[in-house]
Amino acid sequence: MNPFWTILLTLTSVSAGTGLCFWLLHKAREVHTTVWILRHIVCPMIRILVLLSVVSLVYPAIDGQSSSIDFWRVLARQGQFNDLLNLLFVAGLMLAFIPLLNHPVLAMPLQSILTIALVFSWQYADRVDSLSVLPSFATQLKIFAYMLLAYFVTHHSSIHLSRWLDHKYAINGSIRLVADASYLVLQVPVMLIYCGFLKLQLG
């Protein structure tokens, strides 16, 4: 896994996904029904696809012999891509109603960890009895500490940037898109920490 290409492709996919959502919301800003559909269905689905692309870039950290293509190969088996897509969408809806967990600084890493755990269990199904996808207590502490750091680093900058975007493009509520984009990029270390935990189990 080349860190430079991982960072570059992560920034590119996140920028493309967020930019597409901004463009769609800007075009539909006067049609309230369409805006609701975009905010609650289309944009969350775009965000999930971006999340999957980011996870696929980090996933090879588990095994130096694998690549991002192997991640997609696992998902291509027996409709597992559709299953994962539906699961992440439902998980996103459920997290939205749980206090604290509905914040993207927690919700997005939980979704990415869930994705990695599922793909890992599918890929190593023959060894699933001897492997654990539940992170150790030490790993959980590392992940939580980093998520808190990411929150404090981006909280105020996200608010100011979203206000500027709302004014410039005559839309409302861009804070969620801005925060999601920020946390999608900043959660890469969280995924690396979790992948490192899984890698140790493979020996």
Alpha-carbon distance between the two ends: 18 Å
- Spatial shape: globular
In percent terms, what proportion of residues is strand?
Answer: under 5%
Radius of gyration: 17 Å
Model regions low in confidence, pLDDT < 50 over at least 5 residues: none
How many domains in all? 1
Mean pLDDT: 85
Percent of residues in helices: over 70%
Structure overview:
- There is one protein chain.
- Helices cover about 75% and strands about 0% of the residues.
- By secondary structure, the chain is an all-alpha fold.
- It has helices at about 5-25, 30-60, 70-75, 80-95, 105-125, 135-170, 175-185, 190-200.
- Helix 1 (about 5-25) packs antiparallel against helix 7.
- The chain has one domain.
- The longest helix is centred in the last third of the chain and has 33 residues, at about 135-170.
- The chain contains eight helices and no strands.
- The model has no long low-confidence stretch (mean pLDDT about 85).
Using brief descriptors, characterize the structure shown:
203 residues; mainly alpha; 8 helices; 0% strand
Task: Give the arrangement of secondary structure elements.
Blueprint: H1 3-27, H2 32-58, H3 68-76, H4 80-95, H5 104-123, H6 137-169, H7 175-186, H8 188-202
Helix pairs in contact: 1-2, 1-7, 2-4, 3-4, 4-5, 5-7, 5-8, 6-7, 6-8
Give a brief rundown of this model.
This protein has 203 residues and is mainly α. The chain has eight helices and no strands.
